């Protein structure tokens, strides 16, 4: 096999980034978090105070924006925004921004470029169905029950000292799933050729092992990793 190209999609809190990061480390390949890119654009638009209907201004902002992913950090115009983009005020607006054709066009182009020359594992919502539809040699669709996904997010936010309720988090996740699954352009759905992995009740290590096994079987061969 030449390049290893793994696409991971699924709803919020399914474990995409945790699992993808662990696999990248184990296989010594690059991890690309496309959700972080949509979050960074959302932060930029909110900071710019632009009206979300104002296409001309958004086009102008996108033409100048600089988003960089490096060593697990996310940089927006040179500033480390890794923490800021995980805040609930970004989570509650990001799906609106991700549904904008201009934004998707711009980010998909960057994402394809990032994955064009090296072995990568890329996670998001439309990686197996769109961004790396033809390039991926393994597609995984990760999911888990809403309650479990809500609980995972709740724990994370509590640990950061944020005042949130489990009900609010579950509602936010369900709203975002609905929005992401029903938008017109590249909605979240399982690619026909993706392997469905339900992570409910599974540990991170169990899921990582399951996917490493799938990597070993790419092309119907038992590849030695
Ligand atoms: O980590 P979490 O699952 O909460 O979300 P994320 O991966 O950071 O993605 C945030 C949002 O960006 C999603 O809810 C989608 O609206 C959007 N997104 C997308 O539309 N396409 C992608 N490839 C990745 C994210
Ligand atoms: O990227 P995505 O929104 O799909 O999920 P994530 O941010 O990777 O995972 C959400 C949380 O679930 C993290 O705190 C993980 O440690 C946790 N997790 C887990 O407890 N068990 C799993 N099998 C996978 C993730």
From TrEMBL:
UniProt-annotated location(s): Cytoplasm
Coiled-coil positions: none
Chain residues that bind ATP: 10-18
Keywords assigned by UniProt, alphabetized: ATP-binding, Cytoplasm, Kinase, Nucleotide-binding, Transferase
Predominant cellular place of this UniProt entry's protein: cytoplasm
Cross-referenced InterPro entries: Cytidylate_kin, Cytidylate_kinase_dom, P-loop_NTPase
Enzyme class: transferase
Domain annotation Cytidylate kinase: ranges: 6-215
Family: Belongs to the cytidylate kinase family. Type 1 subfamily.
Protein name per Swiss-Prot or TrEMBL: Cytidylate kinase
